[in-house]
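Researcher: We plan to redesign the surface later, but first we want a full-length starting point. Tokens attached.
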């Protein structure tokens, strides 16, 4: 009798654990119903304040609001940017940017002014405003020489700003190249913060 009771408890406990496991699996599946890519539900990147997991907003009914909900801005100055801001520069999308965020050798740069940066940025990005970046190439692996900058050991970089209509990162890229930074080491995330938020990807406040 005692053995029967114990067996009954074990069966009930085991069933409870199975049901709990099924419930947990269901919750996990629910959490990941909006992934980044087919084989990438989320990704964790290093940032100056620790690791941050990038995910997409899980609510399929979510809509973009605020500054990046606007479709039309006065042109000039907010004109649609060309696919590439300079010869030799590689234009990339979100998946390529995420790959660079995970590369310890690469630097992802938010080239916007401080007021825009303060509203939120991409996890892992460093802030180098377009107005000063050409004067701070030492932060990107270049060294000062007699003629300006020696960028033989420059690190691969990706720059972004507010979106397809934002000229801040294209201006930064052209200034960097003029100062001696190699174009082939520059990636341009043309979609910027507007596309990043349109896809519901994680944004952090600096």
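Model: Full-length starting sequence:
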């Amino acid at each position: 009798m005692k053995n029967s009771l114990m067996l009954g408890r074990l069966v009930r406990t085991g069933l409870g654990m199975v049901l709990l496991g099924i419930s947990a699996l269901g919750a996990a599946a629910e959490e990941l119903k909006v992934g980044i890519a087919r084989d990438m539900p989320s990704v964790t990147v290093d940032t100056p304040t620790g690791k941050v997991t990038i995910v997409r907003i899980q609510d399929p009914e979510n809509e973009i609001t605020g500054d990046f909900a606007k479709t039309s801005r006065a042109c000039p100055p907010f004109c649609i940017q060309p696919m590439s801001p300079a010869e030799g520069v590689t234009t990339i999308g979100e998946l390529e940017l995420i790959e660079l965020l995970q590369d310890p050798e690469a630097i992802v740069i938010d080239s916007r002014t401080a007021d825009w940066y303060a509203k939120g940025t991409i996890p892992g990005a460093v802030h180098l405003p377009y107005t000063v970046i050409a004067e701070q190439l030492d932060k990107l692996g270049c060294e000062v020489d007699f003629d300006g900058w020696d960028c033989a050991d420059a690190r691969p970089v990706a720059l972004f700003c507010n979106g397809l209509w934002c000229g801040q990162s294209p201006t930064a890229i052209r200034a960097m190249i003029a100062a001696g930074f190699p174009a082939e080491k520059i990636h341009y995330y043309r979609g910027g913060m507007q596309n990043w938020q349109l896809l519901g990807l994680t944004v952090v406040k600096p």
